[in-house]
Every structure is written in C-alpha cells, then in structure tokens.
Write a structure and sequence with these properties.
This protein has helices spanning 14-36, 42-89, 177-182, 185-192; strands at 94-105, 108-115, 120-127, 137-141, 157-160, 165-170. It is an alpha+beta fold and 193 residues long. A hairpin with a 2-residue loop joins strand 1 (94-105) and strand 2. The two termini are 40 Å apart.
Length: 193
Amino acid sequence: MDANPVLKPKLATPALVLTSVAVGVCVVYLAGSVAANWPPNFFLLLSAAFFVLAGTVTGSVWLVRARRRRTWMAGAIQKWNHFDDVKRTSGTTTDVTVLSVDALEPTGSWITIKWNRFDHVQTAWLEAMHDPIWPGTVLLVAPDSGQVMPGEPWPPAYFIRSSHFLAWAPSAAQRPSSYRKLLSANQRAARRR
C-alpha cells in the first residue's frame, strides 16, 4: 500500500521527545561520571559508550525526519504553485477538499467532499484517474453547471468527471501565508512572468 502523500510527515512525537531527553540526560550524567572517576571502570565506560551510541541513533532519527518533512514541504509548495497556475489559466473553477474515500471501485470512487467556497459537505462520485486520491486532498475542478445551479438545491451526489479534474494539492500545507513565506524572491518573480 502506498503512503498517503497529502499527510505532513511528523517531526516530533511524544516517544521521540521523551527518548531524546532521557538519552541526553544519561549521556550528560555518564560523561560527567567518566570525567570525575578517571580512569573509569569497565562498566561505566561501557554504559557511556552505549548511551553515546543511543544519542547518535536518536539524533539521526531527528535528522531523517527533518529531511523528510523539508522534502515534503518543497513538494507541497510545488503542488500549490501548479494548483494556483492552473486556477489562474483555467476558466471557472472551484476547489473541493476530499474528507473521506468511502468506496473504491474499478471505474472510480465514492468520496465525501467539502465545497471550500460554500462550506457544504456532500457525497461525490469521482471517475478513475491515474493518480490516487487521498483524504486531505484539495481538488481543483471545473464545476458542472448541469449539476449545481444557483438558487437550486444541492444534488444528493455530485459527479466529478476525470476531464473536469484540473489539479490537486495537499490540504495540510494550506496556502497562503505559510507557503508563500517559503518562496524566495526569485521564485515569486519567475511566477509573475
């Protein structure tokens, strides 16, 4: 099974924080004990070496998680840039957030969506596409005027054709302030051209 690409990777978990604190305290205590009791006995030296190794492993876990999160943020920024570019160049569009995937079928999926502009939640049929769609995905679609009309009640189920699907981005990296700060001045200038 593929990992959900719209979920922001966790940097810190309670277990990792507690482990880091415990290993750090042990390393400091044992380093002080080794320095105070020079030459150290074998047990003290072995304990210190073990906790230094544990500290190195814990530090590498932090580095791997930080790198994974930074890579995910860079990809999310690219997705949102593409999303905004398609939205700007397309005609009438709307964005919907996938709240849940209720049933997967060979020709499509039954999903629950939230119309972001109207704050309306409803069931929708999404035709099969080449990319999997996950809960937490913001979809940019060209709305079908035959299904949703001003002044009319919402249909019981909305049908999203694959040809009406334009782009997607992860809702966990929701725009505008957080991701715009990460863009450099050169990237913003290049987008304006």
